Amino acid sequence: MFYYVKGPVAHVAPYLAVIDCGGVGYACHTTNNTLSYLKKGETAKLFTHLNVREDVMELYGFATENELNCFRLLIGVSGVGPKAALSILSATTPEGLAMSIITGDEKSLTVAQGIGKKIAQRIILELKDKLAKGQISASGGESYGGTGVTVIPQNKASEAAAALAVLGYSQAEVAVALKGVDVESLELEEIIRHALKRMVK
């Protein structure tokens, strides 16, 4: 329904930003990372997700599409609701989340408030399974890069590619972003960071 909202920041509070769009204040539940980009009175653009249940209609907003993609992946995991997803994305970046999933680092997820070992393990298992089955794509569809290619990380280059796929990039975009990056000498996080910088230019 809403792709993004854009306007002056009318109000900020923990996990909440109100964006004034033509005199209407849209209350967007959000992360600490997104809040760090916002300043009251300045124009902001938040990519949104509308969560509708029987008794609730809530809008969630994020400074980047990467963060929005990760939020949607997280709430797609059984037992993970919007509040838990915001908690995780407030404790880590989208890049950090992707690395945690690919490397199986459950401890980095339990740093988030309210996230225990069991739910962290479930997030890693379910999202790794989706990635292996080629269900994470740039459009959030049913195939990785539209090809259904199975991704099984075996080295830093393939781990970086898999992490970028978690963030919603297609095979073609990942190939271009990793071209020329020194995957042999750089650490995995640095490889991902360099690739992301190339994709946002």
Automatic annotation (TrEMBL):
Record key words, sorted: Cytoplasm, DNA damage, DNA recombination, DNA repair, DNA-binding
Major location category of this protein: cytoplasm
Domain of life according to the entry: Bacteria
Chain residue ranges for the region called Domain III: 150-201
Keyword Cell membrane on entry: no
GO molecular function, one term: four-way junction DNA binding
GO biological process: DNA recombination; DNA repair
Keyword DNA repair: yes
Subunit structure: Homotetramer. Forms an RuvA(8)-RuvB(12)-Holliday junction (HJ) complex. HJ DNA is sandwiched between 2 RuvA tetramers; dsDNA enters through RuvA and exits via RuvB. An RuvB hexamer assembles on each DNA strand where it exits the tetramer. Each RuvB hexamer is contacted by two RuvA subunits (via domain III) on 2 adjacent RuvB subunits; this complex drives branch migration. In the full resolvosome a probable DNA-RuvA(4)-RuvB(12)-RuvC(2) complex forms which resolves the HJ.
Job description of the protein: The RuvA-RuvB-RuvC complex processes Holliday junction (HJ) DNA during genetic recombination and DNA repair, while the RuvA-RuvB complex plays an important role in the rescue of blocked DNA replication forks via replication fork reversal (RFR). RuvA specifically binds to HJ cruciform DNA, conferring on it an open structure. The RuvB hexamer acts as an ATP-dependent pump, pulling dsDNA into and through the RuvAB complex. HJ branch migration allows RuvC to scan DNA until it finds its consensus sequence, where it cleaves and resolves the cruciform DNA.
Note on domains (UniProt): Has three domains with a flexible linker between the domains II and III and assumes an 'L' shape. Domain III is highly mobile and contacts RuvB.
Name of the protein this chain belongs to: Holliday junction branch migration complex subunit RuvA
Organism: Lawsonibacter faecis
Name of the gene: ruvA
